[in-house]
Amino acid sequence: MEGSLQDVDHAEGVRITRLTVPAAVINGSEGIDIQCDYRLSIGDSGLVLKWFLNGNPQPVYQWIHGKHPQLMGELRHKFSRSTRGPNAVHIANPTTDIAGEYQCLVSTFRTEDYSSKTMVVFVPEKDMSFVQIYNENWGVDFSCRVSGIYPEPVLILYRELRMTKVPLKMVEINKTIENGLYTLVSRATLQEEELYTTTVIFCELQIPGTNYTKQKTSVYYSDAASESPTLNFKVFDFYLTLFFIKAFFVAW
């Protein structure tokens, strides 16, 4: 007999107790297992466990109790039997074409239960840059660019005011796709009167459905900020000159 039945209790019908599917993995990373734990009722028979991907009516995996598990469908070469048991499936090399919603269906002759979770397979950015360009006619242009990334990311431009993130307004976003990978550019323009003597602008990269984030900063210095050190030095130099003149006359 291939595999074994899981816990049995007195509840009515089969029930999925835990579904283990990672929320996010990096494209081409090490192998992972997805697992569907269930509980049977006393007297249940005819157990069948199936895994589906993205709503396709044909399962990618099927196990009928008492028989060998089967890998099915066009993507069956992406999956294999897991050492964890017949209720689990091994994915040796997660890639973007097998990302999406995984659904486990467990059924018996009497009842069935199902549960699903989404797995994002993402490609980190190849490059990320954040620059500022000053123009006396329109102000300061802040431009954040990210390339070679999947799925489509989110770029947020913001500044911090009183420890609070305040998104910049009127942000222009340009997007291109090449070989399935995204390039995104977010731009925002601020007038000089909107900026402090020293202003830090942030660009934050996020990949939806994951905890993956990165951040770049661009620091704006006004003319007043750049002139202040020179002014302070001149004042210091003036007092130092007076000190030497006074000392000279006292000595004289």
Outline:
This protein folds into two domains: 15-122, Immunoglobulin-like, CATH 2.60.40.10; 127-223, Immunoglobulin-like.
CATH topology of the largest domain: Immunoglobulin-like
Give the integer mean of the pLDDT values: 84
Unreliable segments of 5+ consecutive residues:
224-252
Number of domains: 2
Protein name: Ig-like domain-containing protein
Domain Ig-like: 14-120
Task: Give me some keywords for this one.
elongated, Ig-like_dom_sf, Immunoglobulin-like, 19 strands, mainly beta, Ig-like domain-containing protein, 252 residues, disordered C terminus, Ig-like_dom, Ig-like_fold
Description of the structure:
This protein has a six-stranded mixed sheet with strand order 3-11-10-5-6-7, with no helix packed on it. Strands 1, 2, 4, 8 and 9 form a five-stranded mixed sheet that branches. The chain contains one helix and 19 strands. The protein is elongated. The chain is mainly beta. The N and C termini lie far apart (112 Å). Residues 14-120 form the Ig-like domain. InterPro entries: Ig-like_dom (IPR007110), Ig-like_dom_sf (IPR036179), Ig-like_fold (IPR013783). This is Ig-like domain-containing protein.
List the helices and strands and how they pair.
Blueprint: E1 8-9, E2 15-20, E3 24-26, E4 32-41, E5 48-53, E6 61-64, E7 70-71, E8 79-81, E9 88-91, E10 100-107, E11 112-122, E12 127-135, E13 139-149, E14 154-161, E15 164-167, E16 172-178, E17 181-190, E18 198-206, E19 213-221, H1 223-251
Parallel strand pairs: 1-4, 3-11
Antiparallel strand pairs: 2-4, 4-9, 5-6, 5-10, 6-7, 8-9, 10-11, 12-13, 13-17, 14-15, 14-18, 16-17, 18-19
